[in-house]
Design goal:
This protein has 262 residues and is mainly alpha-helical. It has one domain: MetI-like (MetI-like fold, Orthogonal Bundle), CATH 1.10.3720. Helices cover 82% and strands 0% of the residues. The protein contains ten helices and no strands. Helix 3 packs across helix 9, helix 5 crosses helix 8 and helix 8 packs antiparallel against helix 10. The protein is globular, with a radius of gyration of 22 Å.
């Protein structure tokens, strides 16, 4: 068995084991206590709803995932560009950095109704909220990565006639990649939250809308099924970023998030 494959299997063993044990305990607790499904359905019933109504779940999952990925990509591009600007310009860093912090401090649930008023109940509100909520960790992590380069290394590069462009691509960018991927891991989870919050406020499609609709109908199994499908999709997106990180940052172990805490 290849070493990488055995390593991945070993890494997945304990989370899988604890998940299975947790689901078994949940199933047993519901049946022993006789708890009604409207309060807490057992995992077997949630799985049955996913199988029986997969078409409905997938129809609402796609808009949410599409907006999540689009808002995330915009946050990645915008965050890296802003990080580059504030790295090379002290004036812009002093003037723009507090604005970025304030944008993160404001509760996003309070902004969502304003976005509905300004941009309507369409996809634009969900997209902008996903972008706004995931922009901060991308910017902070990327900026810390660009600025954490050893000054001695930069001086040596300039001594060998390295241009600013060469120093950026050969030194700053490789140094910042672990930070950027750490920010991406945070941002993708926050982008999902942003989309779901926007769909809670005003939307006619998406997993957030389906959860709100099922809650209004007291259909707890459908609500839990929607949450489960959303969690699986979010885990898949996170895994894609983790795999991309292992390919791009092959020279060192993945870095933990260093800014913009989730």
């Amino acid at each position: 068995m290849p070493a990488n494959l055995s390593k991945h299997i070993a890494a997945a063993f304990w989370p899988t084991l604890f998940t299975v044990l947790g689901l078994m305990a949940w199933e047993a607790a519901v049946h022993v206590t006789g708890m009604r499904s409207i309060i807490l359905p057992p995992p077997s019933e949630i799985f049955a709803v996913i199988v029986a109504r997969y078409d409905l779940l997938l129809a609402h999952l796609w808009p949410s995932i599409y907006l999540t990925v689009l808002g995330f990509l915009l946050a990645v591009v915008g965050g890296i560009l802003v990080a580059i600007v504030i790295t090379y310009s002290e004036i812009i860093r002093r003037g723009f950095y507090p604005v970025i912090v304030v944008s993160q401090v404001i509760p996003k649930i309070a902004i969502a109704p304003l976005f509905v008023v300004w941009f309507g109940t369409g996809t634009m509100s969900s997209l902008l909220l996903a972008f706004l909520i995931s922009f901060f960790p991308m910017t902070i992590n990327a900026a810390m990565g660009f600025q954490s380069v050893d000054e001695d290394i930069q001086r040596m590069a300039r001594t060998f006639m390295g241009t600013r462009w060469q120093i950026f691509w050969k030194i700053r960018m490789p140094n910042a990649l672990p930070y950027i991927f750490a920010g991406m891991k945070i941002s993708i989870t926050l982008a999902i939250i942003g989309v779901i919050v926007a769909e809670f406020v005003a939307s006619q499609e998406g997993i957030g809308y389906l959860i709100k609709l099922a809650g209004g109908l007291l259909d707890t199994p459908l609500m839990m099924a929607a949450i489960t499908v959303l969690s699986i999709a979010g885990l898949a997106l996170y895994w894609i970023i983790a795999v991309a990180e292992s390919r791009a940052v092959y020279w060192q172990a993945p870095a933990e998030a260093v800014g913009g805490g989730g």
